[in-house]
Every structure is written in C-alpha cells, then in structure tokens.
Design brief:
about 950 residues, alpha/beta, nine-stranded mixed beta sheet, 33 helices
Length: about 950
C-alpha cells in the first residue's frame, strides 16, 4: 500500500540539472549574456533557494525529534506557500532552460486539473416507476414507518435538527474535525467529489482518496496531485480490500468524525456542516448518519420473509429516498442500514470489527448497522433534506447510481445479502419490522451443544404441541452446535436452517470465538445476541440446562435481566394495578428433571415470569426419631427440584437426642442452605411447629414436615406447578387459598365417627382425579402461604388458651373443639371463620406426595390419646410416576373448575364457606352476618369487617 501526500517541492533531479547548466557546463551561456546583472540575480536566487531548503530541513529535523508527538500530524503547507513566493524570484530563463534540457522533466510540471479530471456523462432523466400499485404500496409502508417512529422516538425536519443544541459549532471555536474517505475504483467522479468538498461550509480536516486494487490508480493519483493540497492524500494498494478496506483506513484517523463516501455520491455544499451538527446532538451522537438507507423486509402473511429485492410486494421493504417512487426524506428516519455514505464518530468505526462479517465480498453496510446496534445500542438514520436546496442533499445527483450500477442486482449476490440480513435478524438485530411488530413467544430455548439440544427436545416439542403456545430454540452455531446438526437432533429437516421463518436461530457463536481460550468473546456474543432476541420476541422464560457452560450461564443471566416483558394488569387481592413489566425468567433445568417438567408448557406465560421469584423452604420438626428422620431426608434428597435453590431447616426441641443432633449435623443438603435451630426450654409440639417458619416476604413459602413423614419424588413439582397456576397468575384473584397439601386424607377427620372418604368417588361426575379445595388444613405435609401464615400467627396469639374449653370458637359438630395443645386446631378455626381453603391432590388409591408412617410421637400412641389409629387409614401410597397423566386434560384445571368441600367433606361453594363462617360470628372482630374480618397482610393484624 502506498501513501502519497502533495507538496510544492520539486525533485532532486531537477535541482541537479539546474545547477549543472548554470554553474558548471553553462559557463558559455553565462558569459554570452548581454547583461551581467542576470548572473547576479541568478546567484541571489540560488542563494535564497538554498537558504529556504536549510530552513525547511531545520524544521523537518525538529519535527522528527523524539520530543515532538507526530500523532498530531503537523501541517507543512506553510513550506509550500513560502516556496511558491520565492519561485517568483527565479528568472523566467530557468524554466526555459529546464524545458530545453531534454531530461524528461515534463512529469514534474504542475498538473492542470482541466487536463486530468474526468466526468461521468448523465444524459437521461431520473428513473420513475409507472406502476401505480407499487407507488401506492411503497408510500403506504413509508407512512407507516414514519407514524411509528414519530410516536416512539420523534422525528425531526431539517430545520428542527439544526435548531437542536450541538457540541459542534461551525461559527464557534469548537469545530468538528472531519476526515473524508473517498473510495474509487472505475468511476470518473473524483474531481466532482473533491470540488464540492472544497466548497463545504464546514472545511474538512483531511481527504483520503483510496484506490484499492483499482485499474484506474494512476489517473486517480494524477487527479489528487493536481489539487496540490496537503490535506488531500492518495492511498493505493494493488490488493483489493473490497468494501471493508475504507473502514479499516477510517480506524487510523485522528479526527473527531469520519465521512465515508461511495464514488457515486456528490454531497451538497452544506453536508459536512449539517452532518456534524446532528452528530453533536445528545440524541444522535451515538448514531451513524447517511443520505441513503434501506428498511429490510417485513413478514408476509405466510409467516415467511421475502427477499429484499422482491418486486411487486409491500413486504420487501423500502429504499430511502427512492426517486423511482417519489419518496423523498423530509424527516429524520431510522433505517436498518445505510448505503453509499456513512457519517459517524471515529470511535464507533471500531465496532465494525468486533465480529467477523458474514462475507467480505459484500454487506459491509448491513454489518456496520447490525453491530452498532448489537454492541453500542446505536441507530442508523437517513437525514432529511430541504427539497428546494440541493446544498442540503447528501446525494445531489442520484442518477449516477444508474450509470455504472453498483447496487447489487446479480442473483447470487442478492442471495448472499438475503442470507446475511436473515442471519442478523435471527441473531437479535431489531429491524424496523421487529420494532413495529413486537413478537410474543412463550419460551425461548438455548442450547450450546448438540447434547443440550437432545436434552431440551421433549420440553421444546411439548411447547410447540400445546395449543396457543409458541417456542423457539437458539443454538450457538459454528463449531459448538451447527444448526443443521441441531435440526437433525430435533428430527427437523435441515432446511429449517435456511428458511426465512422463525423456528431455529443459529447465533454463530462458534464462528466468532474461534479457538480463543478466553470466555470474553463467548459471553459478549451470547449476551448481545440474546438481549436482542429477548427484546424482539418477549419470551416469558428462557430455558436451558443447568450444567451449561459457566460463561454461557453468565451471558444468559445478563441478557434476561435487561429484557422487559409486559405482564398486563396485575391483580392483587381483587384490586387492579396498571400494566406491569418484568424481566423474563431464566430456567436452568437439570437434565434428569426435563421430562418430568413438561407441565411447564401448560402454565400461563404471565405466571412463568415468576418462576424464580418464589422461595420454597423445607422445615423439619424433629426430636428423637432418627431412623424416621433418615427416611425423610433420603426421600427429600432424591426428589426433583428443577434446579431451584431450596433451603432446609431443622427445628429441634430442648430434649432432642444425641443421635438426631449428629444426624442433622452431618447431613449434606445438595439443593440449598441448611439451618439448625434448637430450643433452650421445651416448648412442645404446638410451639415446635408454629415457630418452625415465618415468611420473609410475600414470595416465601414454608413446607412443614414432621420427621415421620416421607415424600414422593414429585412433591416439589406439585407445589411449584400449583403455585404458578393458582398464586402467580396475574389475572387470577384467589385470596381464599391459603395452603397446598401433599397428602390426601382417607377419613373425615373432624367428625367423631371419622367415616372413610374417597375423593375419586366424590368427584367422579366432574373428573375422577381432579384436585379439590378443602376447608381442612393438612398437618402431614403442607405448604403454607406467607400472607395467611402471618394472619394465623396473630390470630393464634389472640386466641391461645391453656384450657381448650376456654377457647371462644366452637364449631358445631366438630370434634376439634376439644383438641388441646394443637396448632392445627387454631388454623382450623381461622379457616372456618374466614372461608379459607387448601388445595388437595386426588389420585388413584389416594396416592399422595406425602405419607404418614404413624410412628409414636406427641399425638400418635400418646398416653392421653384414647383414639385407636388404623395405620391403613393414614399411611397412603406415595405417587411414584408423572402425576400429569391423571389430571383433567393432563393439566391443572382452572381455579373456577376446582370443586370445594367444607370442614365436614360436604360440597359447598367458596361463598357458602364464607357464609358459614360469618354466621358463626366468633371471630376476633364483631362483624355483621354478611361480613368477614380482613387483615393487614404485611403484619397479619386485623383491620376491619368487609362485606363478602
């Protein structure tokens, strides 16, 4: 690559010839001179010329010294001006003798621009479309784009832009330094471009004329030389760096801004002024500006995207401005990429080289805009013009584009560019279509390897097979997970990787990071790409495996944290708030849990957003049954936890035995933190249970288990599924639900006779295995809700008496009235008085998610317990297979479809339960028969009576 910079100093060969003729071999000519004064003038001229060279050399040596920072690139144009002045002192005979010397010095003569400049011939009118339909469609789409942008970001006319405050002031001291880069190959427009740039109202800092592999290099060089301007440099190379070479050169500028022009762009005389002003505004300083741009295709009705060169359809996008369709840009418009000219800060140019381009053969324009948005959140904008003032136009002679066509029209190049823009769209590039048409997908899967694709496939297919649900998968691509291999693993045709239809997204991460051992390229690329895809498609959840690479996990976490999904009107306790936005939930599933978590596809998308918000803790009450405790701990350890962090606590009374202390001390809990609590003074079971857990927030749920309980491997899945369905659905108000039971009772516990009861028989007309609502709380494995537990704490404190007969609440026909030292008795009273219910499972043979082994303890086999307990009536089988198979239609029924029964197992509506409680009239506040007590849910303290 060669660099030529203009100067006014002649060649050394000319000086040598000059001295030889006049000081050596030219003595005869000097002696024959009619006037001796000519000799004196000549000597004086030569002396001055030598002095000039001495001064020049002195300054040159100074600037080359180590104390001078050459990065400032000092301007030596003053030497040219001095030499030009001194040239007048040299006799005319010098030039005459130089010409007569016959030494081939014609090349050193000043070049005449009129002799070297070439110009394109434009002898036709601007092309115009006579297709009325297409003119209408294009203008309709353009109006839609402007309308959207005016509502979301605001669009300005040229006067409005110039009225905005800018850090660059053409009239003040803070003028922008603009480096102009002109890339030329064959066109004959260089003189026209330089001429208009020399006339700019804001002078340029430098012009770099590039001839990279150009067959016209010598002519271009002569043109640059003819301008004799040290600000204009000529840079050439025999290698053709294609379209990216000019941007590589732009990295070298020390100016503030860079203006890169195609050879068919003849900007108006005010363009540098206008562009610099806009680039200095707060709104557009982080942008790339231009005069021509393109809006990429919109999705068609068949859900595919057409070629950007597809003729005859609206969805092919827009070319702006488009004189063929009478579309003129009179307001600032954001586009998907710019063509023919780019004006941006020198800092932003670096962004083009963060990722390898799709190809070096074409597409630098799209690659620049794509990466600027992806990594710098920078937009691409076409500036408005004054239709009546060509000096404001960045493309004052648009017909040049038709003289030697540079806009790609060849079929193979069009295909390459179609593939390129589709690759950007599926890698998170938010085009104008994507901005105007936000998508809504329920789940976005990410797989970094083929094994991860295989692991996630069942849940992905469940989403795609569920009516009304939509899910896509993104794969890393490249050497990590090629799209075609991923498609094969999913049993999809490999053609899905080439179709312009959303289904699978190849992120090309492996191509970017290549063989780098650093995690930085991977984190950067996945974060930037997934951030765009999340913003574009608004998934409720992003799902991957929990053993995904650590760097990938970091990137996904950052990406979901920046995304916002509109939930809608969130409902709380019957009141409606405004629109709520939340970050998507990142679900990291253990591979062994994926096939057991297919029910995720049946949960409402708005509820899935709360996946990671809930916190379910396991709270064990134990004292001296170490064998039972070990059985419980094994069943808990072996359960499915969906990758959640589940803390566990052990609550021991003062008389706990040594074996139990050792067991809980050495027990390793792999699913979360472990906490041990031991009372100093014996409190008994009522205190051991009620004080074993207290909620830290409204998303903190407590599972209470005595040590003779054993749980099913599916118990946690049941809890999580139920909470997402009935607690976290923003559109559902269900304040009556206060807990979720793991156990299905076989007896009517509160009746003296304790008759047997089978829910499958009771509800067979609805559905044999439907879950149901029961007014009875469960003490053999139940999850309690935070608001209701606070309420229970306050109620129990207000009603607790040592003598059960002194308790003011006496429920008719309930044997619980005589229970003493039972925390459950107070919870039963509260639920009866206020119409609360618990959700219960219902499966064949009353199989449950927990069972009670009926081992001796505080109640069972206690000396003062006169009841005989048949173990078969209490020890139910554990559910050991996927419970979805038994649910109505394979999923949790809507809350409105759940049957409800009262304390005595009689069918009663939720309102009927409230009527019975209000009628009893024994709550802590005296209310009317049509009112119930409400509380402050943050404290549980009673507030007032409210009509239900």
């Amino acid at each position: 690559m060669g660099l030529y910079r203009n100067g006014s100093v002649r060649s050394a060969s000319f000086l040598d010839g000059f001295q030889s003729d006049y000081l050596g071999g030219g003595k005869t000519k000097l002696a024959s001179s009619p006037k001796s004064s000519n000799s004196s003038r000549l000597v004086a001229a030569l002396t001055c010329l030598q002095l000039a060279f001495a001064v020049y050399a002195t300054f040159l040596l100074f600037y080359m010294s180590p104390i001078v920072d050459l990065r400032t690139k000092p301007d030596f144009s003053w030497t040219s001006r001095i030499a030009s002045g001194w040239k007048l002192l040299i006799p005319n005979g010098v030039n005459h003798l130089q010409d007569a010397s016959g030494m081939g010095l014609m090349e050193q003569q000043p070049l005449n621009m009129s002799e070297v400049c070439e110009h394109e011939t434009i002898d036709f009118e601007q092309k115009k479309s006579d297709n009325v339909k297409m003119v209408t469609l294009k203008k309709e789409l353009y109006d839609e784009v402007l309308d959207f942008q005016s509502k979301t970001n605001g669009i300005e006319t040229l006067p409005e832009l110039l009225a905005m405050k800018s850090k660059w002031d053409i009239k003040g001291p803070n003028k922008a330094k603009v480096t102009v880069i002109l890339n030329h190959f064959k066109r004959k427009t260089l003189c026209s471009q330089i001429d208009t740039l020399l006339q700019q109202t804001l002078p340029f800092h430098h012009i770099w004329v590039l001839a990279l592999g150009s067959p016209n290099e010598q002519n271009l060089k002569r043109i640059v030389e003819s301008y004799n301007d040290t600000r204009i440099s000529f840079i050439s190379s025999t290698y053709d760096f294609k379209y990216f070479g000019r941007f590589q050169m732009a990295l070298q500028t020390e100016g503030d801004l860079v203006y890169i022009l195609d050879d068919d762009m003849i900007p108006g005389k005010r363009m540098l002024e206008i562009l610099s002003h806009v680039a200095g505004t707060d709104k557009y300083q982080n942008s790339v500006l231009g005069s021509i741009g393109r809006i990429l295709p919109f999705r068609s009705k068949d859900l595919t995207f057409p070629s950007y060169r597809k003729f005859g359809i609206k969805e092919a996008g827009l070319y702006l401005p488009d004189p063929a369709y009478d579309i003129l840009v009179e307001k600032m418009v954001q586009v998907d990429f710019l063509s023919s000219s780019w004006f941006l800060s020198s800092e932003l140019v670096k962004t083009l080289f963060i990722e390898d381009p799709y190809t070096f053969m074409t597409g630098e324009d799209l690659h620049l805009s794509y990466l600027l948005q992806k990594y710098r959140d920078a937009g691409s904008f076409v500036l408005p013009v004054d239709p009546n003032d060509k000096e404001t136009w960045g493309d004052s002679e648009h017909r040049l584009a038709y003289v030697s066509e540079t806009t790609v029209i060849f079929k193979d190049i069009v295909q390459v560019r179609d593939d390129q823009w589709w690759a950007t769209l599926t890698s998170g590039y938010i085009t104008q279509w994507a901005a105007m048409n936000p998508q809504k997908v329920d789940a976005f899967f990410y797989a970094h390897s083929i094994s991860e694709v295989t692991a996630l496939a069942p849940l992905l297919e469940k989403f795609r097979a569920t009516s009304g649900k939509k899910a896509y998968i993104a794969v890393s691509g490249g050497r990590y997970c090629p799209c075609e291999d991923a498609a094969a693993a999913l049993k999809w045709p490999k053609s899905v990787c080439k179709e312009r239809r959303f289904k699978i997204f190849d992120l090309g991460i492996g191509t970017l990071s290549k063989n780098s051992p650093s995690e930085v390229p991977v984190v950067q690329a996945i974060y930037a790409t997934m951030k765009g895809l999340i913003k574009m498609h608004n998934p409720s959840v992003v799902i991957t495996v929990d053993d995904v690479d650590v760097s990938v996990k970091k990137a996904l976490k950052m990406a979901v944290e920046t995304g916002r999904v509109v939930v809608g009107n969130e409902t709380s306790e019957g009141s409606t708030a405004g629109n709520v936005t939340k970050a998507p939930a990142l679900i990291l599933l253990p591979r062994r849990s994926i096939t057991q978590a297919l029910w995720i596809a049946d949960v409402k998308p708005a509820a899935l957003l709360y996946w990671n918000k809930m916190r379910i803790s396991v709270n064990i009450i134990t004292q001296n049954r170490v064998t039972s405790l070990r059985r419980l701990l094994k069943s808990l350890t072996d359960a499915y936890y969906l990758g959640d962090d589940v803390p566990i606590s052990f609550n021991m009374d003062s008389k706990v035995d040594e074996d139990t202390i050792r067991e809980v001390g050495t027990f390793e809990w792999p699913h979360g933190t472990k906490t041990l609590r031991r009372r100093i003074i014996q409190g008994g079971l009522i205190r051991a249970v009620s004080e074993s857990w207290y909620p830290a927030s409204d998303d903190d749920f407590g599972l209470l288990l005595e040590d003779d309980i054993e749980v099913s491997p599916y118990y946690y899945l049941w809890i999580k599924y139920a909470l997402l369905t009935y607690y976290y659905d923003p559109q559902l108000s269900f304040p009556e639900l206060n807990s979720i039971s793991l156990y299905t009772p076989r007896l009517v516990e509160v009746l003296k006779e304790r008759p047997k009861w089978n829910p499958s028989e009771a509800f067979k007309k609805i559905h044999k295995y439907t879950p149901y609502l029961h007014q009875l709380p469960c003490s053999w494995g139940s999850v309690f809700f935070p608001k209701h537990w606070r309420e229970f704490y306050v109620y129990m404190n207000m009603r607790f008496t040592e003598n059960a007969k002194e308790n003011p609440v006496q429920i008719p026909k309930s044997r619980t009235n005589g229970w003493q030292a039972s925390w459950k008795k107070f919870l039963i009273d509260l639920m009866y008085l206020r119409g609360y219910v618990s959700l219960y499972p219902n499966f064949p043979d009353q199989a449950s998610f927990s069972t009670n082994h009926m081992e001796p303890g505080a109640h069972i086999a206690a000396k003062d317990n006169v009841l005989q307990h048949d173990k078969h009536d209490f020890e139910v089988p554990l559910l050991m297979d996927d419970f979805r198979n038994y649910l109505p239609n394979g999923k949790m029924p809507p809350a409105s479809k759940l049957p409800s029964i009262n304390l005595f197992n009689k069918p009663v509506s939720l309102k009927g339960l409230k009527v019975a409680g209000a009628k009893l009239g024994q709550d802590v506040l005296e209310c009317k028969p049509t009112e119930l007590v409400t509380v402050h849910h943050d404290t549980g303290v009673p507030k007032e009576c409210v009509t239900f």
